[in-house]
Each structure stands twice: as structure tokens, then as C-alpha cells.
Amino acid sequence: MSSLGELRTLAVGARRGGPKVKERKPDNKAAYLFLAPWIVGVAVFTVGPMLASLYLSFTDYNLLKSPLDDPPPFIGFANYVAMFQDPSFWNSFRVTVQYVVISVPLQLALALALALLLDRGMRGLSFYRSIFYLPSLLGGSVAVAILWRQVFGKEGLVNGFLGWFGIDAPGWIGHPDYALWTIIILHVWTFGSPMVIFLAGLRQIPEMFYEAAAVDGAGRVRRFVSITLPLLTPIIFFNLVLQIIFAFQTFTQAYVVSGGTGGPADSTMFYTLFLYRTGFLQYDMGYASAMAWFLLVVIAVFTAFNFWLSKFWVFYDD
After folding, report:
1. What stretch of H or E contains 144?
2. Where is 47: in which H helix or E strand?
3. What CATH number does the domain containing 275 carry?
4. 263: pLDDT strictly greater than 50
């Protein structure tokens, strides 16, 4: 009874502006202790190298020389000026932008189409979902890139199939007009990750919207355009931003398929491949660091532009 009376006294005192009970501040020491390995890892392996590369981009740094024993000379913006005047740099940038602009929309369109097909409640959904997701796990591997060389080579599977119809096709990878398209097809083939995200988004659309539209006489196309697409735009936007970032960073496919040379007439000389060759084959790490930071700026600009453009076509619940 005494404790109940004390609680009532405190409640009355609080309502009358009396002394308030002091709130205890949460003790986050344990949380910071568990986060310490991650914080140290980010600082040592991410933030530190980023700051180092930013400094090196303003220097004439040779990879074969230790920056501690022989500090690289500071040259200001000379690497950036040389980069913008380099025809090979602009060719690699053009190839990469072309790859991103073509492959990302095709990949998302295929992923959405298959997600719509799987969303119809077919039997063995888990099996098909796993099979379609498998290319996303293997698409960036060296083994698949080597397999791609065998498929699109002069004596590859594609030309063997075309040979049955009397078509004498060229070596797709060795032809400057088709080499880039083979890597684009490889990227489109790895549609599993955005497909799973699309499928999860489709499952979140209330069925009552489709039922109401069907009662009003709306067909499948009308329901897709008026219900599915608007409610799925946040998922489309999410996949679009992620896939653009990943496409700009494509390296393994271009390196293995082209044999590390950039393909015929530099038709598959991707930006990251040119950066790798500059830094680790020509040992001009200062120039390569400048290229890396320029790529970061380009990705940031594309991402910011997508966020600005999303105001006009992405629809949220609120």
C-alpha cells in the first residue's frame, strides 16, 4: 500500500509541476564494443585507402616505389588534366556508358517479366526462383566468363548452332562490332537478383486493387499499367540505382572475355579495365587514382540525377 501511495504522490506532483523523476541515459558501451571490429575495419580498409588514393591522385606515384621511402612528387591537377586529354580514357568511358545504358534497362525488363510470370503462383516456384537466381551468383565469376568465351568464340556453341542453318558467323568476341554485345548479354543473363526483389515487391501489392479493377472491366494490360507499375515504381527505382552502380564497376567479365586486352580495337576496354591496366601494368598509380575518383564522381552524379528524376515517376504510399 505504501508503494502505491508513493506512486500516486509522484504522479500528482508531476501534474502539478513538482519534482520530476530523472531519466536514466542509455548505456551504449556494450553496443560500441560489438561495433568496434566493424568500425576499425571500415577505417583501416575503406576510409584510409580512399583518403590515400585521393592524395595519390595529385602525385606522380609509381607503384614500384614505396611512398614511405621515396615520397611521390606532388603535381597538383596534372593527372586530371592528362586524363581529360587522353583519347584512351574517353574511349573507355564511352564503352562503359554504352554498356550501362543498354544492359541495365534490358536486364531490369527481363527480371520484371520473369517476376510477373513467377508471381502467378505456378508449381515449383521455389525451384524456378533458385534456378533463375543462380546466374546472379555465377555471372561475375571467372569460370562463367571463360564459358562465355567458348559460347561466343569462332568455334563456339552459337556459331555451331548457326552452322546448322548454313550461316557462317564471325567470332563474336573477336569482332569489334559484336564484342561489347556479348558482354551486354552476359550482364542481362544475370537478372536473378533484381528478379527476386521484383517478386518480393509484387507480393506486397494488395489483391483487392486487382479485384476492384477487374470488376470495373479492366483487362490484364490495363491492370498492369494502372496498378502494378505505379505501385512497383519504388522497387524499380531501387533496382535501377543498384544496377547502374554495379554496371559501372564491371571488371571481371570484361577482363576475362577480352583476355585483359580490351578486345578488338578496344571495343571492350571498360573503364575499370583501363584503370587496372594503368595502375597495375603501367604502374602509374597516381593516374589510376585520379581515374578512380572521377568514376566515383560519375556514379554519384548518375545516382543524384536518378533521385531527382524519381520525383516525377516514383510513387509512394504517402
Report:
1. helix 142-152
2. none
3. 1.10.3720.10
4. yes
> Does residue 250 sit within a domain?
yes
For 203-235, how does the pLDDT look when each residue is reduced to its tens digit (9 = 90+)?
888 888 888 888 888 888 888 888 899 999 999
Q: How many domains does the chain have?
A: 1
Pick from 161, 186, 164: which is nearest to 173 by CA? 186
Tell me the helices (H) and strands (E) count for the chain, helix number first. Answer: 16, 0
Torsion angle defined by CA atoms of residues 237, 241, 244 and 245, in that order, rounded to the nearest 10 degrees = -170
**How far, in Å, CA of 114 to CA of 129, rounded?**
10
3-state DSSP assignment of residue 74: strand
Domain with 198, as residue range(s), is 87-312
- Is 68 contained in some domain? no
User: Could you tell me how many residues make up the chain?
Assistant: 318
Would residue 1 count as lying in a domain?
A: no
Tell me the sheet residues that pair with 74: 59
Q: What is the pTM of this model?
A: 0.83
Give the dihedral of Cα atoms 249, 252, 257, 260; nearest 10 deg: 90
Q: Please check whether residue 65 lies inside any domain of the structure.
A: no
